[in-house]
Hints:
Elements: E1 5-8, E2 27-32, E3 40-45, E4 54-57, E5 65-66, E6 74-77, E7 97-101, E8 105-112, E9 118-121, E10 126-132, E11 135-139, E12 142-146, E13 150-154, E14 160-164, E15 170-177, E16 205-206, E17 217-227, E18 230-240, E19 245-250, E20 255-258, E21 277-281, E22 284-289, E23 292-293, E24 313-321, E25 335-339, H1 351-354, E26 360-361, E27 363-370, E28 375-377, H2 378-382, E29 384-385
Parallel strand pairs: 9-17
Antiparallel strand pairs: 1-19, 2-3, 3-19, 4-18, 5-28, 6-25, 6-29, 7-8, 7-28, 8-15, 10-13, 10-15, 11-12, 11-14, 13-20, 16-20, 17-18, 21-22, 22-27, 23-26, 24-25, 24-27
The structure holds fe (ii) ion.
Amino acid sequence: MAHYRQLGSIPPKRHTQHRTPEGGLYYEELMGEEGFSSDSSLLYHRGIPSAIVDARPWELPDQSTSPNLPLVPRHLKLHSLFEGEEWKDTDAVAGRRLVLGNGDVRISYVVAGAPSELYRNGLGDECVYVESGSATVETVFGTLEVGQGDYVIIPRATTHRWVPAPDAPLRAYCIEANSHITPPKRYLSRFGQLLEHAPYCERDLRGPVGPLLVEGTDVDVLVKHRGSNGVVGTRYTVPHHPFDVVGWDGCLYPYVFNIADFEPITGRIHQPPPAHQVFEGHNFVICNFVPRKVDYHPLSIPVPYYHANVDSDEVMFYCGGDYEARKGSGIAQGSISLHPGGHTHGPQPGAYERSIGAEFFDELAVMVDTFRPLELGEAGTASEDPGYAWTWSGRGPGR
Ligand SMILES: [Fe+2]
């Protein structure tokens, strides 16, 4: 994120003495990407940021995956994963259930009502989409107030915690990368400014408010990191609370973008999914389909043509409105469709003709396209509607 921000108390010159009111020194930390060769921020701590007093394994929820075999399109009903009142005792970090994943990205889902422990992801950036509810995300950079439709971008290694508002469940769709998540490169100037043809700009991004100073000793911090079998966890105990930053500045920090601020790109004929792209990571992209006027050529067909994305798996998360091309498939709010590479997909029977003459689609969906195949996590297997693969033909095994 190349947009410079500054919060709290920092010295006029970097890497120079910054003193407390009592005359002591604050401890400067550079948090930077790609060695010292990309975006970074400088943070000024009251305590030594590298201090730890204990470290032990943190047992993560089931991270195992199984291949999409036989290869079929799949419908996963995420709202079936958290039923009843269990969300009230579930938090938005440890409570995540793995839906889909590969070596580049993991998608999980959680319905939360309890505050999480302090946490950071050492594998990559996180993009957490808030389907509904609201929360305060407390971070070492300050606080972010988040609500429905927000993408919360949290850079790798940012210590933070999720505190849901008490009145309603926080439904979060968590996209965890093994890389950084950024706006699409084609929308950035060579110096990093969002360009005129981008569907959003810097004014649409909300940064942390703070600084956030919390007193505390011997505090636990959960860290998700790389291991020989993929993702593993460590629980550290640190001698003083990590939210001890009196000020920071730089171009690396968590931020929020709301899906309602995405200005859709439309045309006389059908616009391909890259027109809907909002972010990208290594080997995957994030797109969103928002309420919009649709194709206005007199002979246009507004729903998508049938397509085979030969190089990618496509994951749609249906999070609002009524998705035109999926009517009649059982897909509803909270559903995922997985359309794998090697398989042609497109509108359900009837939707193709029915869309002719439509002027507006009231639909909201977040899409992740991956260039390596996705495997099913335990929550993917647990939430599957087994009839989906056969909805285009109306027949299936044994029918
Ligand atoms: Fe598609």
